[in-house]
Design the sequence.
């Protein structure tokens, strides 16, 4: 299929939480943020799930070099029209990926603010394969997936991720309700899991940054 090369990027605690139960996700220090901003400037698009926008009001811009296209995966067009992902640096394009079930009024309000809408399927959730094809056709050859946990599961379970870069911060936050790196339904057995190969490890500031390639699985078709 036509799809961008996808790098899943996240910062998490040693116990795998990408946010605390209170929604705090400030794991990176200044040095690690520099690495993240550099990576953002090297890709064609940055993508997040709607909850990340609603909870963090992320700008998704880069402080180094160019700021790439921003993509929000938002089936029902719940992105607030005044969200920073749309209003900060309006010259940087923002795409809201929705389904045909999204309210036309919400879509129109987002379009008035300059956001571009991509309709990806007719189901309850955005059809991610369809979105990947549409982004590829728009020229997105390298995409940075910046979470959160539910979108990470959606992308990983469909075989759409190629590489993972995780910054592990030396802290433990616990919490059964704290969002982990990958949420969703999960696999029943370890043997069903997405297999990875460690290709790099480095200390960046206080974080340990691990880079993994996804090992393709012919039986699952990816
Ligand atoms: N530390 C880090 O690196 C980092 C990075 C990013 C986020 N975070 C944290 O992660 C938390 C949010 O994570 P989250 O898991 O709650 O939400 P999320 O992954 O940001 O968003 C999930 C939502 O995306 C929408 N979506 C649409 N189509 C989908 C599909 N096919 N598969 C999966 N999701 C789809 C769904 O809502 P609809 O169906 O309604 O559209 C779903 O509920 C925040 O607390 C944020 O701070 C941390």
Sequence:
């Amino acid at each position: 299929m036509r799809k961008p090369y996808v790098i899943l990027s996240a910062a998490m605690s040693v116990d795998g939480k990408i946010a605390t139960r209170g929604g705090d996700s400030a794991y990176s220090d200044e040095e690690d943020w520099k690495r993240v901003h550099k990576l953002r400037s090297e890709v064609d698009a940055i993508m997040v799930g709607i909850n990340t926008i609603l909870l963090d009001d992320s700008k998704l811009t880069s402080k180094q070099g160019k700021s790439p296209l921003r993509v929000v995966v938002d089936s029902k067009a719940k992105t607030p029209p005044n969200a920073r992902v749309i209003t900060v640096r309006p010259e940087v394009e923002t795409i809201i990926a929705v389904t045909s079930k999204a309210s036309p009024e919400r879509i129109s309000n987002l379009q008035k603010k300059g956001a571009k809408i991509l309709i990806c399927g007719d189901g309850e959730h955005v059809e991610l394969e369809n979105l990947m094809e549409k982004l590829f056709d728009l020229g997105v050859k390298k995409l940075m997936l910046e979470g959160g946990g539910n979108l990470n599961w959606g992308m990983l379970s469909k075989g759409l991720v190629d590489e993972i870069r995780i910054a592990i911060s030396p802290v433990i936050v616990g919490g059964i309700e704290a969002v982990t790196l990958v949420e969703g339904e999960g696999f029943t057995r370890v043997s069903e899991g997405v297999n990875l190969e460690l290709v790099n490890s480095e200390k960046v500031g206080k974080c340990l940054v691990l880079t993994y390639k996804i090992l393709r699985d012919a039986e699952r078709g990816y």
Summary: The mean pLDDT is 96. Residues 5 and 142 are 5 Å apart (CA to CA).
